[in-house]
Every structure is written in structure tokens, then in C-alpha cells.
Specification:
With about 180 residues, this protein is mainly alpha-helical. The chain is about 40% helix and about 10% strand. The protein has seven helices and five strands. A three-stranded antiparallel sheet has the order 1-2-5, with no helix packed on it. It is elongated, with a radius of gyration of 21 Å. The mean pLDDT is about 90.
Length: about 180
């Protein structure tokens, strides 16, 4: 359209000059979200204290940092809501000590509905493992804040063992596919 407008002398310059368009013949591969069965296989394969992390991520659509930073005070079991207003951030330089930071974008601050199945899993997790420092639900074996890299490593190892090609981000795609299907 801009090229035609410039050719017809309706505009002097095109704001699209220099913009590289994607090749028409290089469409991305179709995304196949994880099935509910695959999510449960992955949840059963990760270490026990991360099982609820898989199911909460898949049921709520959480990013890695949001899932790692989930605390008991952000879960309203009575009203069945989860408030996402922070995430775990791991510095790239030493010391690589994770800390709470703001979500990825301002619009990432949100309140999510808490499905009964996820609420039950989280309640059982709290009953079995309790709260960690800063009321964290998910943490390392030595009770420290878990970095996204630690979570990614544990999940990737589980996925390799059950031969499912997936990353933690695929749990988010699972949530989106459930929402679309409903």
C-alpha cells in the first residue's frame, strides 16, 4: 500500500522503507500444545516438591519467574483467585542470588481465576511442604528461593526422561489451548 501511495505521489516517503518483511515461504511450524496427559506425566516425573509447580504453571498459565515467585499470600483460596504482581529475577552477574522483581510488563500484573483442581494441588502442596522463606510455595531442596534456571533444569530433565519435547513455556501454551477450547 505504501509503495503504491509513493508511486502515485500521494506520499513523499514511505515509513516502511528499510523494513524487512518475513519470507512468505517460511511460516513457523504449527504449535502443538501439551495434552493434559503429557502435563500429568511431566508432573509425575519432576521431583515431588516440584509436582505442584508443573500443575500450577499449566493450570494458571504462569511464566517461569511468576511460578517460582508464587507465595501463599498471593493465593486467595476462598475467592479462588491468584494475584500475580511480581516474579523471581536472577541476576546475570555474580552473585547470582534470585530476588523478587516486577513482572515482565506492567500488564503482567493481574488476578487470575484459581481452578478448583489447581487450588486442590496447591493446598496439598502447602500441607505437605509448608511455606518457605518469604512465604514461597516453591523453593530449592535447601529451602532457598528457586531461580528460573533451576526450575528450567529440573523440568527439562524430567521432559527428557519421559521423552516429551517440552519446555516450561509449553505449560503456558497448554493453558492457552484450554482457554480457547472452553
Amino acid at each position: 500500500i505504501m509503495l503504491a501511495a509513493r508511486t502515485d505521489r500521494l506520499i513523499y516517503e514511505s515509513p516502511c522503507d528499510g523494513v524487512r518483511l518475513p519470507r512468505a515461504d517460511s511460516a513457523p511450524a504449527a504449535l502443538e500444545p501439551l495434552t493434559t496427559e503429557q502435563v500429568h506425566r511431566l508432573a509425575d516425573e519432576v521431583p515431588g516438591h516440584y509436582r505442584a509447580l508443573v500443575l500450577a504453571s499449566a493450570g494458571l498459565g504462569l511464566r517461569q519467574g511468576e511460578a517460582c515467585g508464587l507465595t501463599v499470600d498471593r493465593i486467595d483460596f476462598l475467592r479462588r483467585r491468584v494475584r500475580i504482581d511480581r516474579q523471581v529475577v536472577t541476576p546475570t552477574k555474580a552473585p547470582r542470588v534470585p530476588y523478587f522483581g516486577p513482572p515482565k510488563t506492567p500488564t503482567s500484573n493481574r488476578v487470575l481465576p484459581l481452578p478448583a483442581s489447581v487450588g486442590d494441588v496447591l493446598a496439598a502442596h502447602i500441607a505437605e511442604y509448608g511455606e518457605g522463606p518469604d512465604r514461597l510455595l516453591f523453593r530449592t531442596r535447601d529451602d532457598r528461593m528457586m531461580s528460573r534456571q533451576t526450575w528450567h533444569g529440573a523440568f527439562s530433565a524430567a521432559a527428557a526422561r519421559v521423552k516429551i519435547d517440552a519446555s516450561t513455556h509449553d505449560l503456558r501454551h497448554h493453558t492457552a489451548s484450554l482457554l480457547i477450547a472452553s
